[in-house]
Structure formats: C-alpha cells, structure tokens
Amino acid sequence: MPASPSTDTAILWFRQDLRLTDNPALQAACRDAGKLLPVYILETDPDPWTPGAASRWWLHHSLAALDAALRERGSRLHLLQGRADECLETLAATSGATAVYWNRRFEPAALTRDRDIEAGLKQRGITCHSSNAALLVEPWDHFNQQGKPYRVFTPFWRSLQPRLEAIVPQRRPSALPGVPRGNGHGLSLEELGLLPEYDWDAGLRNEWQPGEAGAGKRLRSLLETRLIQYPEARDRPDDEGTSRLSPHLHFGELGPRQVLAQLMQHRAGHRSAGLVRAGEQFLRQLAWREFAHHLLYHFPETTDKPLDRRFEHFPWSNAPETLRAWQRGRTGIPLVDAGMRELWHTGWMHNRVRMVAASYLSKNLGIHWREGARWFWDTLVDADLANNTLGWQWTAGCGADAAPFFRIFNPVTQAQKFDPHGRYLRRWLPELARLPDKWLARPWEAPTEVLAEADIRLGDNYPAPVVDLKASRARALGGWDEIKGIS
Ligand code: FAD
C-alpha cells in the first residue's frame, strides 16, 4: 500500500490478464492508489471476434478464481456488462476514481477501442495508465534490420533471444488497497450468463482448472516431470507431451515473463544438456506466440484476409455438408475425426492434429480457412485471435512464413508416425478400437474380413471418407496452379 497515495481512488480494469502475479497494471495501481476498484467488463462493444462458447466457459471459471484471490486479500471483483467506455465512465463517476489502470491488448478492435476510451476518459479529467503483461516484447518495439515488421519466424526468434535476459516478472503485491464504498456490487457471475444453457461442458470440467492456481500447476508439472521429453513428445498427440498452457496464457492467468523466469530458474538448478535443449525448444514455441501477436498487430487485416493476396483468388468450395462433417469429426479420416472430437470434448486439440485437421479442411476439402478459423474460435478454450490467425494462415499456405501450399499433410502417414500404436485414435474413435494398427489410420483400405472382425461397417457405424485423399490433393494442387502466377 502506498505511504501517501498519488491518487485517492483508482479503477483496475482486468481484461486478458486475470492474475495477481506479474500484473504490472495491478502493481502500478497498488503503488499509486489509496482505494482500488478491480473491475471486469463483459464487453458488448461491436467486435467481430467476441469470445466463443468454450472461451466463455473458461472465462466464467477464471473470473471466479480471480474474485476468490482478490477476496482473500480483502478486495473483490466488480463485474459489469456493456460498452467498456460507458461502464468505465459511469464507474469513475460513482466511485470518484481519478485514474484507470489496465494492461494492453493487441487485437485490432481492442486497440481502436482502447484509444477511444483513453481519449474519452482524459476529457473527463481521468488519467489512464497502461502496461504490458501479455508479451515478452511488444510488436511496436521490435523490427528487422530494415526497420520493418518481421514476416519470417527464424530471424524474429534470433533477434528476440538476446533481449530475454533483461526480462523479469513482477511480484504479486503484498497487500491490496481497499475497495471504495458506494458502488453497489455490480453483477453476479451468474448474471453474466457465460456458462452453456445445456450441459455439454463435462469434458471441459474434467480436463481443466481455469485460474492462476491451475496455470501454476500446469507449469510446475511440465518443469518437474515432462520438460526433458518435450522435444520428442511435443509432436505426439498420444502423450501429454506439451504444456497445455495455451488457455492460461490466453486469459493471462500466467504471463510469458513468468514462464521464462521459471524456465531459467529450473535450468540453473539442472545443468543437463538435454534439459537446456528441451527448455530452448519450449521457449521457441512461446516465441511463436510472440510472432503471432507481432503479425496481428502489423497486419491486422489477416484475421479475414490472406497475407499472400494471391489466395483471394483461390477457387474455394462452398460445401456446407462437408464442413459439417469436419466440424463433427465425421469425415471418415481417423486422425482428422479424432482431433475434431478431442476439440469438441475438451476444448483443446494437439498442435500436430490442428495442423493436419486445418490442412485437410483447406486443401483436401478445399473449404476456405476462415470457416475453420471460425469453428476453432467457437470451440477452443485457448481461442486466441493472434495464434489462431497465424495457425490457419500458416497451414493454408497463405500467411507469414507459411508452409508451402503444396505441402499437404497426409493424415494417414501423420497418424502412423505420430500415433504409432493408435492410442490417440482409439481414445477418440472407440468405434475403431478393434481395428489392427495396420489399418487403423485408413479403415477404407482394410480388407472386408478385417473390418467385419472389428465390427466396422463403413458408412454405417463409421463414415466412409467424404473425399478421396489422392484426388482431393490433386484438385488442391490444381487450385494452386491457377493462382500461383498472379503477381
Ligand atoms: P506447448 O507446445 O506447450 O507450447 C507452449 C505455448 O507456446 C503454448 O501454450 C502457446 O501459447 C505457444 N505456442 C505453441 N505453439 C504455437 C504456435 N504454433 N503458434 C502460436 N503459439 C504457439 N494456439 C492458441 O493458443 N490459440 C489458438 O487459437 C490457436 N489456434 C491454432 C490453429 C491452428 C490451425 C494451428 C495449426 C495452431 C493453433 N494454435 C493456437 C497454436 C498451437 O496449436 C497451440 O498454441 C498449442 O497446441 C497449445 O498447446 P500447448 O499449450 O500444450 O503448447
């Protein structure tokens, strides 16, 4: 608590920074304010990317966890719903707050909106203080040697590395200023209506613990037991080889500076070459997140438009039924179906399977990557505009540093290589469980007696492939031939 506060009452506006540790807006507010009103606003501002169903589920539980952490420290979270500018202006007027603190966001709509909010509050004599909680390096602070934004990952990563040593997280404040009186209680969490109306979220509840404590557990579990295997295991959907930190990072229950610091500390205590290598591999993935935010900031149109403009002329198919088969995990291609069912059930999908499912949609099915990005947006608990845009454009071959279009993932060989014993496929496709490994990734090629023995009737209890892999690959390459010469 400040010895003599420079601001009597302040508002702390929580957004995608739902944590108390390494939260610079919170630190600054604690330093400056005598009374502090922490608020979360469920925004109704116009934004084409309002959170999807799985993200809303996560948000509900994350807000509950944040409120509990604030209450343990004598504060509490004030919940509102509406336009952010109006909510903040009204709250400042009723609480007598003279300052608002927040951590910056990087999505195009949020950036424009934040600028307008700041201008409006300033006009009312309210000061605004913004900080960086979400990234290791902000996009406007990192350019290539020509002074331009990076479009290729490797030089971006190389230039980021020397900057990492100077990055240190902030501590959790030891005490929080009290809440000003007389603002009512705001809305209850239930009144925000974030939870689904019918009960489809059991899988999410079993898999995740939203909130700062859950994020800390995931990071500790990675560092203490699994980091050493990360370089090999990170490509294996049948193993829990990755951190599963993505939703925690998206909602800011854990910041990348904390991950970096804990990784460095862990490395200092275990000087093995294997661990150093594993730590570097992991950091490199975190740097993809930085790269994605860098691209979204510098190329904000890429949420809807391909960075490689030739793809605006690609002959995409309009095939609602096939799209639906993909969404439901009923394409007849086991690795794609397993991934889409994992997504539906847990709100998450392994990165390798995301690449395969996205390649299959945009190349084999020829359906616009935007349709896939929208479905992921609604169903992923880690739906993140920067990472999702990069992931889809990269896989579809039209983004920054993208996979070349002709690199079309073969879902059969991918399954055989990365799920060699079929554990992942059998887990998500129990109807195929009795098929021998040899045929599991390509049941349509299995001899009739093998299918009968495994009790599989293609087109009945498991779909026949909705498209032929070879023919659809050739069609995709034909589409590429049509556009690749466009300048
Ligand atoms: P780990 O391997 O443990 O990596 C640690 C962290 O690094 C992740 O939590 C994530 O924040 C970051 N990271 C890892 N890989 C990437 C990557 N390729 N791009 C950007 N950041 C990365 N990630 C999201 O967080 N949200 C999305 O909406 C999203 N959509 C995607 C869509 C497609 C089509 C593809 C191919 C990838 C997408 N990704 C997305 C990236 C990646 O699949 C996930 O970040 C990763 O699977 C999360 O699992 P993890 O936390 O166990 O990863």
Automatic annotation (TrEMBL):
Record flagged with keyword Flavoprotein: yes
Q: Could you cite one Gene Ontology molecular function of this protein? A: DNA binding
Enzyme type, top EC level: lyase
Photolyase/cryptochrome alpha/beta domain spans which residues?
Answer: 8-136
List all Basic and acidic residues biased stretches.
Answer: 232-242
The superkingdom of the source organism is Bacteria
The residues annotated as site (Electron transfer via tryptophanyl radical) are 316, 369, 392
Keywords, sorted A to Z: Chromophore, FAD, Flavoprotein, Lyase
The annotated region (Disordered) lies at 230-250
Question: Which InterPro entries does the entry link to?
Answer: Crypto/Photolyase_FAD-like_sf (IPR036134), Crypto/Photolyase_N_sf (IPR036155), Cryptochr/Photolyase_FAD-bd (IPR005101), Cryptochrome/DNA_photolyase_1 (IPR002081), DNA_photolyase_1_CS_C (IPR018394), DNA_photolyase_N (IPR006050), Rossmann-like_a/b/a_fold (IPR014729)
- Enzyme Commission number, as recorded: 4.1.99.3
| Reaction(s) catalysed (UniProt annotation) | cyclobutadipyrimidine (in DNA) = 2 pyrimidine residues (in DNA)
The cofactor remark states: Binds 1 FAD per subunit.
Report any one BP term from Gene Ontology.
photoreactive repair
Give the binding site residues for FAD: 230, 242-246, 282, 382-384
Per the similarity annotation, which family is this?
A: Belongs to the DNA photolyase class-1 family. Belongs to the DNA photolyase family.
Q: What does this protein do?
A: Involved in repair of UV radiation-induced DNA damage. Catalyzes the light-dependent monomerization (300-600 nm) of cyclobutyl pyrimidine dimers (in cis-syn configuration), which are formed between adjacent bases on the same DNA strand upon exposure to ultraviolet radiation.
Instruction: Write the protein's name.
Output: Deoxyribodipyrimidine photo-lyase
Origin species, per record, is Thiohalobacter thiocyanaticus
